[in-house]
Amino acid sequence: MKKLFFLLAAMAGWWLCFLEPSSVATPPKTVPAPSLNRAAPRNEIAGSAPISPVRSSQTLALPPKSKSEVADELFQKGISALGSPDRRGESIEYLEESLRNDPGNGSALFALVQAYSKTPASNQGEIFLLALLDNNPQDRDVLQSALADFYASKGDSVKAQYYAESAIESDPHSPVAHTLLGMIYAEKNDERAQAVLERSVELHREWNNGELSTEGAKKASVALGQLLKESGRTDEAQRLVSEAERKR
């Protein structure tokens, strides 16, 4: 049996010698896959992160704007449009949308009142401002002042006085509300006008490092100066008005 086994093995080896090399099956050569962690070429900065050929949308997306940023952009557009008579409707739309994002923005509120005052009589402004007041009680002092200014511009002194007095109740240190109320009293020859305007000038100084450097301060100073002049205090009135005009 052992002889038969060795004989078969020898024959198998002998036949293999006559086969062509190409006819003998050889295992395919394995080509190594390219390494993802290849060495950086010499022109790449050592230590830098590999640059991905595809950028995700998150890398390119800008952070969302805050409501105050949106409000400021709309305010600037509203102010720009306000200067053109044929764009006042557009200005009102921008300013109203600005205030929906930032209801307590006094600059936008009084610019909107100015825009309303230059448009044909309508109840649009009244409806919008009252709705803002109802929905934003935290800003009631500045909204009440805006309503006082709105009604004063429409010649409704009763409502103007009501909202100016309400604004002072909401914020006893508001220079704007005191200016509005003092001017309303002065228009009615109310004896309380001088005291309210003196308080207004005092508050404007407190808010502006002792100076009368704002438009509101000038209005209060001119209104008070007129009352002082009528009471015979001409020199004092002139000094006050000159100071307000010089500081602007």
Oligomer: single chain
What's the overall average pLDDT, rounded?
A: 81
Secondary-structure element order, N to C = HHHHHHHHHHHH
Q: Structural class, judged by helices and strands?
A: mainly alpha
Please tally the helical runs, counting DSSP H or I stretches of 4 or more residues.
12
Helix content bin: 55-70%
The radius of gyration computed from the alpha-carbon positions, rounded to a whole number of angstroms, is 41 Å
Extended strand count: 0
The largest sheet, given as strand count, sense and whether it forms a barrel, is: none
Straight-line N-to-C gap: 124 Å
Form type: globular
**Beta-strand fraction estimate:** under 5%
Low-confidence stretches: 1-28, 33-49
Structure description:
There is one protein chain. The protein is mostly helical and 248 residues long. The protein contains twelve helices and no strands. The longest helix has 16 residues. The protein is globular and about 65 Å long.
